[in-house]
Amino acid sequence: MFKKVLFLTAGLLLLIVSNMLADWSPGDGHKMHYPQLPDETGWAVNATQPMILADDWRCSETGWIKDFHFWGAWKHQDVGQINYFVLSIHDDIPAEESATGWSMPGNTLLEIDITNWVEVPIDPPTMEGWYDPSTGEIIPEDHQAYWQYNVVLPEAAWFWQEEGTIYWFNISAIVQDPANTTWGWKSSIDHFNDDAVWAQWGALDWTEMYEPWTDPRVNDFFITIDPSGNFVVGGGTDYYGQGWYYYPSEWWNIWFYDHPFTYDNRKVAHIEYDIFPLTPDPSYVEIAVNWSTDQWSLDQPVGDSFPPLPGVDEALYIGRDILYSGEVMPGHYIFDWIWPDYNPEWVSIDVRGYNFEIPAGFIRHDCNESLDLSFVV
Fold first, then answer.
1. How do residues 45-78 score in pLDDT, each as one tens digit?
2. Beta strand 128-132 with 43-46: parallel, antiparallel or unpaired?
3. Which residues of 326-365 are buried (b: 16+ CB within 10 A; e: fewer)?
4. DSSP string, 309-369
5. Is 70 helix (H, G, I), strand (E, B) or coil?
6. Maximum separation of any 2 CA atoms in the chain, in Å
7. Taking the chain (377 residues) in consecutive chunks of 10 residues, what is each chunk's mean pLDDT?
8. Residues 94-115: pLDDT tens digits?
9. Do 224 and 215 touch, CB atoms closer than 8 A?
10. In this predicted structure, what is the pLDDT of residue 14?
11. Do residues 275 and 357 make contact, with C-beta atoms less than 8 angstroms apart?
12. Between vectors from CA 331 to CA 250 and to CA 252, what angle results, nearest 5°?
């Protein structure tokens, strides 16, 4: 009887052991708040140099970090070649200490170019989107396949972390053909602490990330005010109640329903309109976007949904940002507006003044969820 004997060189044995150690599956160990697993109906967010993405984690066990695992995909599923990843670890600048108003990576604690990793292909039954926060490019059903990237750090790059401390993990991919292939870090189904952020090499002006436009509502509006400041005509699409309401503060207002009130998301809006003087006489206009405050939603009975109509305490229940104030200058105007503190249930366009008409305008608005990225420490 013959026995089969397998001889392995030291190098091959080390490679096999490294690959076994590098693999990670849900249920395996971790040293962070919890694994942030990939969202198979989410987004691959551009992380190809000069783009850098970062997300934070809380250390759950003091000790060495020896490996990272993260998920990514290729735009249009045009698979390219990654020359290396630049991975780094940073301390935390909390939102309350940040000049930007959101938390972001601080001092660099470790930076390393990674040229060796293990890729595990994944082919889910769902299509996934592509998102580039630097350009605003959004492709909802862009690709299907994605990959798990398993990185074992060389011993000289092991990182000692302290339990309870917040750190940031940064990734940027250097690809062989950036003109034709672009790699993205996949978003996560799990959210922790503050939003992921993006920046570009050199400037490092970190910007927090939210889910891109996913369920926008679009409402049209129009209104005419005569030279004496009297309402002539007005309307829109999918507005509340009678359309335009008049408030003691002398604003004309048209309400549109947004999405359910929540502190977890933010409100974004894109507003465009045409405006002209009604007659050659002097003219004046103020145009604002306003919203129902969080207090308004908290004070309403559960199940009721209506906006703060005239007669309410406007200072308590209505927020307002003026977009334009001055003489009516004919033309087409565009404004983008964000309310970061919460998603209000109602949003409106407000106008006041005299001798103007807005024959056509629209507001596109959405409730943006936080965007976090998929990785395991």
1. 999 999 999 999 999 999 999 999 999 999 999 9
2. parallel
3. eebeeeeeeeebebeebbbbbbbbbbbbbbbbbeebbbeb
4. -TTS-HHHHEEEEEEEEES---EEEEEEEEE-S-B-SEEEEEEEEESEEEEEEEEEEEEEP
5. strand
6. 109
7. 32 38 79 94 96 96 96 97 97 91 92 96 94 92 96 95 96 97 95 90 88 85 97 97 96 94 87 97 97 94 86 96 97 93 94 98 90 94
8. 989 988 888 999 999 999 999 9
9. no
10. 35
11. yes
12. 15
Distance separating alpha carbons of residues 337 and 298, to the nearest angstrom: 23
Running DSSP on this structure, what letter comes out for residue 210? B
Please give the single-letter amino acid code of residue 331.
G
| CB neighbour list of residue 225: distance below 8 Å, 6 or more residues apart | 231, 232, 252, 278, 285, 351, 353, 354, 355, 356, 357
| Contact assessment for residue 119 and residue 147, using Cβ atoms and an 8 Å cutoff | yes
- Rounded distance between C-alpha atoms, residue 256 and residue 275, angstroms: 21
Residue 40's pLDDT is what? 93
* Joined tokens for residue 182: 């672009």
Count, residues in the chain: 377
Q: Would you call 15 helix, strand, or coil by DSSP?
A: helix
- Which strands make up the sheet holding 239-246, listed edge to edge? 239-246, 252-257, 346-354, 284-292, 318-326
Assigned token pair, 150: 């398993």
Give 153's Cβ-side CA count (13 Å radius): 20
Query: Measuring CA to CA, which residue among 162, 161, 165, 55 is closest to residue 105?
Result: 55
